[in-house]
Automatic annotation (TrEMBL):
Record has Endoplasmic reticulum as a keyword: no
Domain annotation J: ranges: 5-75
Protein name as catalogued: Heat shock protein DnaJ domain protein
Key word Transmembrane present: yes
Amino acid sequence: MATQDFYDILQVAPDADEEAICAAYQRLREQYDPQKLNGAAAELVELAQQRLSRIDEAYATLSDAQRRAQYDAQRQASLQDVPDYRPLPPAQHAERPRDFNPRPTINQPAAAAIAGPAAAVIAVLAIALVSIIGGLILTGGGSVPQAVPTPTTSPMDALETMIARARQIAEQNENDAQAWLDYANLLYDSVQIVREQAPNSVLYQQRLPRWLEAAKAYERVLELDPTNAVARGDLGASRCFYGAGVGDQTFVVEGLKDLETATAARPEDTRLLLNLGSCLASAQPPRTDEAIEVWQRIISIAPTGSPVANEAQRLIDQVRR
């Protein structure tokens, strides 16, 4: 996802001290509190929860000196020039100068191996989320205020527009792994939101084929970047969730292989572990004990009370009923 590094997520400079990081974390935790979205659309509540999960993950790393040093080294090594897809400046009816670059690049962290797929949609909708949460504080809750920039366009409609644009960019840059990753992540997000909020709905059944679309896009990413463990894991989750949804264990088995490979490469990636547990529970017969073991590992390594830890505990309680 359109990816962010941990400093961007916490909105602090890379040389920020421990006090600044802690203050930023507390501010963002309060800002994105889902309880302040009571009465808002379910997808916005979900986006706030996903944002909180990324905030917790970023803080867990940057507040630990050893983990931060390892992260900084990885982040520095991944700096590279990537295409800048922002509109070119107007020519003003004049010829471009000889040194004008029609294909500019920007220097930023290639954090695909660090950030998860939800980063793409969260980054674009963050301003709208903040506006909505802020409005609810001022009005004491209730309906979404008209201060949202485009009140007639729902976040889900905005996401569909982003998907179409991402697909166009990927097809125009067929050898750009990041472009395909952005496209795959948006597809993943658009169906994952529905799966988490309304897994038994007609809408989710209609969107099941999108898991295969996401899987194909992740396959392209891996053709270009075979070592991308996060893309491997999201490919596995896409296959597994599709198979579970249509009742085809062939996809579940394939997805499990990808997720096991990905989590072996990134054993502390809590989002990949969460999906691995869900996939194990979707197998026939369900591999419940293994799933619970994976989710318990999440609880042991994630910050206490964090969204991902809470979700792992919820899933454990659910399968034990």
